[in-house]
Amino acid sequence: MTFRAVFQIVFNELSAAEMAALPKDLQLDLLAEFEVLPENPDDLDPERFGALERDGRKLYRYRAKDHRIYFERAEGGITVHRVLHKNSLRDFLFRSKLPVGEDEQLSKKDGFWKLIDAGASTRKR
Questions:
Q1: In terms of Cα–Cα distance, which of 77, 83, 82 is closest to 65?
Q2: pLDDT at residue 44 above 90?
Q3: Which phi and psi (to 5°) does residue 66 adopt?
Q4: Cα–Cα 20 to 30 A to 43, which of 73, 103, 113, 124?
Protein backbone atom coordinates (compact mmCIF):
# COMPACT_ATOMS: atom_id res chain seq x y z
CA MET A 1 0.00 0.00 0.00
CA THR A 2 1.33 3.44 -0.95
CA PHE A 3 0.56 6.57 1.03
CA ARG A 4 0.81 10.02 -0.40
CA ALA A 5 1.65 12.94 1.86
CA VAL A 6 -1.17 15.39 2.39
CA PHE A 7 -0.40 19.07 2.21
CA GLN A 8 -2.38 22.17 2.98
CA ILE A 9 -3.02 25.23 0.86
CA VAL A 10 -3.33 28.10 3.31
CA PHE A 11 -4.70 31.45 2.16
CA ASN A 12 -3.70 34.48 4.20
CA GLU A 13 -6.34 37.07 5.03
CA LEU A 14 -5.84 39.12 1.83
CA SER A 15 -5.65 36.21 -0.57
CA ALA A 16 -8.74 34.64 1.03
CA ALA A 17 -10.62 37.92 0.55
CA GLU A 18 -9.40 38.16 -3.05
CA MET A 19 -10.63 34.62 -3.75
CA ALA A 20 -13.94 35.24 -1.96
CA ALA A 21 -14.57 38.29 -4.15
CA LEU A 22 -14.51 36.09 -7.26
CA PRO A 23 -17.58 34.24 -8.55
CA LYS A 24 -17.83 30.73 -7.06
CA ASP A 25 -17.42 29.07 -10.49
CA LEU A 26 -14.17 30.96 -11.07
CA GLN A 27 -12.89 30.12 -7.58
CA LEU A 28 -13.41 26.42 -8.29
CA ASP A 29 -11.81 26.70 -11.73
CA LEU A 30 -8.73 28.45 -10.32
CA LEU A 31 -8.31 25.90 -7.55
CA ALA A 32 -8.81 23.01 -9.97
CA GLU A 33 -5.99 24.36 -12.15
CA PHE A 34 -3.73 24.97 -9.17
CA GLU A 35 -2.04 21.58 -9.09
CA VAL A 36 1.11 22.16 -7.06
CA LEU A 37 3.20 19.55 -5.35
CA PRO A 38 5.00 21.64 -2.73
CA GLU A 39 7.84 19.14 -2.36
CA ASN A 40 9.04 19.97 -5.88
CA PRO A 41 7.90 23.46 -6.98
CA ASP A 42 11.12 24.23 -8.88
CA ASP A 43 10.34 21.59 -11.53
CA LEU A 44 6.97 23.06 -12.50
CA ASP A 45 5.88 24.08 -15.99
CA PRO A 46 7.56 27.44 -16.77
CA GLU A 47 4.62 28.39 -19.02
CA ARG A 48 2.39 28.62 -15.94
CA PHE A 49 4.82 29.03 -13.06
CA GLY A 50 7.52 31.52 -12.29
CA ALA A 51 9.76 32.17 -9.33
CA LEU A 52 10.79 35.41 -7.68
CA GLU A 53 13.63 35.49 -5.19
CA ARG A 54 14.85 38.14 -2.79
CA ASP A 55 16.99 38.00 0.34
CA GLY A 56 16.78 34.20 0.43
CA ARG A 57 12.99 34.21 0.16
CA LYS A 58 11.46 32.38 -2.80
CA LEU A 59 7.97 33.21 -4.00
CA TYR A 60 6.22 31.40 -6.82
CA ARG A 61 3.78 32.79 -9.39
CA TYR A 62 1.13 30.60 -10.93
CA ARG A 63 -0.89 31.63 -13.98
CA ALA A 64 -4.49 30.42 -13.77
CA LYS A 65 -6.86 31.75 -16.42
CA ASP A 66 -6.75 35.55 -16.10
CA HIS A 67 -5.33 35.47 -12.58
CA ARG A 68 -1.94 35.20 -10.94
CA ILE A 69 -1.56 33.33 -7.67
CA TYR A 70 1.53 34.23 -5.62
CA PHE A 71 2.56 31.62 -3.04
CA GLU A 72 5.50 30.18 -1.15
CA ARG A 73 6.38 26.89 0.43
CA ALA A 74 5.51 26.43 4.07
CA GLU A 75 5.90 23.48 6.38
CA GLY A 76 3.30 20.92 5.35
CA GLY A 77 2.11 22.80 2.29
CA ILE A 78 2.00 26.25 0.73
CA THR A 79 0.86 29.71 1.75
CA VAL A 80 -1.00 31.77 -0.83
CA HIS A 81 -0.18 35.46 -0.46
CA ARG A 82 -2.13 37.11 -3.26
CA VAL A 83 -4.65 36.24 -5.98
CA LEU A 84 -4.54 39.05 -8.53
CA HIS A 85 -6.30 39.57 -11.83
CA LYS A 86 -3.74 39.85 -14.61
CA ASN A 87 -4.87 43.40 -15.36
CA SER A 88 -4.13 44.40 -11.78
CA LEU A 89 -0.65 42.97 -12.12
CA ARG A 90 -0.20 44.66 -15.49
CA ASP A 91 -1.18 47.96 -13.89
CA PHE A 92 1.39 47.37 -11.16
CA LEU A 93 4.07 46.47 -13.68
CA PHE A 94 3.24 49.53 -15.78
CA ARG A 95 3.50 51.80 -12.74
CA SER A 96 6.82 50.18 -11.89
CA LYS A 97 7.98 50.56 -15.51
CA LEU A 98 8.80 46.87 -15.83
CA PRO A 99 8.21 44.71 -18.87
CA VAL A 100 5.38 42.22 -18.34
CA GLY A 101 6.62 38.74 -17.51
CA GLU A 102 10.02 39.68 -16.14
CA ASP A 103 9.97 37.83 -12.82
CA GLU A 104 13.60 38.60 -12.10
CA GLN A 105 13.08 42.36 -12.42
CA LEU A 106 9.81 42.19 -10.51
CA SER A 107 11.55 40.45 -7.62
CA LYS A 108 13.86 43.46 -7.24
CA LYS A 109 11.05 45.96 -6.67
CA ASP A 110 10.21 46.85 -3.06
CA GLY A 111 6.64 47.71 -4.05
CA PHE A 112 5.98 44.18 -5.20
CA TRP A 113 7.17 42.66 -1.92
CA LYS A 114 5.10 45.18 0.05
CA LEU A 115 2.08 44.04 -1.97
CA ILE A 116 2.86 40.42 -1.08
CA ASP A 117 3.65 41.09 2.58
CA ALA A 118 0.50 43.12 3.14
CA GLY A 119 -1.34 39.86 3.83
CA ALA A 120 0.97 38.91 6.68
CA SER A 121 0.18 42.13 8.52
CA THR A 122 -3.58 41.77 8.08
CA ARG A 123 -5.30 40.52 11.22
CA LYS A 124 -8.73 38.93 11.62
CA ARG A 125 -11.21 41.19 13.32
A1: 83
A2: no
A3: -95, 20
A4: 113
